[in-house]
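Wed. Picked up where I left off yesterday with DUF3592 domain-containing protein. The coffee machine is broken again, so keeping this brief.
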Amino acid sequence: MRDTAEGQQKHGQQEHIETLPLFSTTDKNGRMTMLPPGRRVGRAAPLMPWLLTAAVLWALTGSVPFGALLGMAPTPAISMVLGHPVTVGVAVLLLFVAISMTATAYSRSIEQFGQTRVAGLFATLSVTGGLAAVAGILLFWTLTSDLSRPFDLEAIATSQTIPLELGAVVGASFALWAAITLLRLPGSIAHARRRQVDIERLRKEGLSCIGTLTALNFTNSWLFNLPIFTVEVHYIVDGAPRVVSAYMRTSADRVPVVGSILIVLTDDRGTTHVELDQESGATFETDVGKYAPSDG
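Structure written out below (tokens, as returned):
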């Protein structure tokens, strides 16, 4: 299983390099969308098993701090079990598995939708959804196990021990976060799919023009460790010179220099897409540290 995970990671890194630099004439930062040649427009269905598995792992991991530390256990015996060193050790192991599964869900989301914004929402939903679910289950189980137990939020300030109410507030915070993420996800998926549909259509039906990178401006910002640029690309349509502005995200070692050849895809709807000419290639900046993020 470890070999499979390492193979997937290497495959993801290779695909990551091949698709950079990434250009967008409409979006910037995490909303920039890619569609590698030969890949279909993304679907959410293949991601559901990864999302649910990661959420379950986070729920199992979260049962220990919620049950033993925050007092959200239906009985003292269950609280002792959840606080036992063996249980804590298992929870720590599950935490690493949950992190790995969340990272896999993130990378699979990028493969499907070509967008870090959508991938980030899927990863966030797996974490917050799992923690909110276990908090809700434990809270409901605890309150129904002792119907006479009062539930008073003032206990957060007055109790000399960590009260159940504090765990409820923490769980509610994760639930609110998960709900906001879930509400944002459909619109983000629809946006990514629209961009991918445009790219797919332009490759099949659009006018392909040879473009030249004529301006490269560093925005002094990064998405993770990937520098962001604004660029201008000159191309010719029906004998008339034109220029298109775009955002560019790439790695520090794959920054094309001015004069590099690009492909400009356009149609009569005014939709434009810019991508690297894989056959002609490009000349990249030799100083790989020039656009690397500073440690400070």
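Quick read: The radius of gyration is 25 Å.
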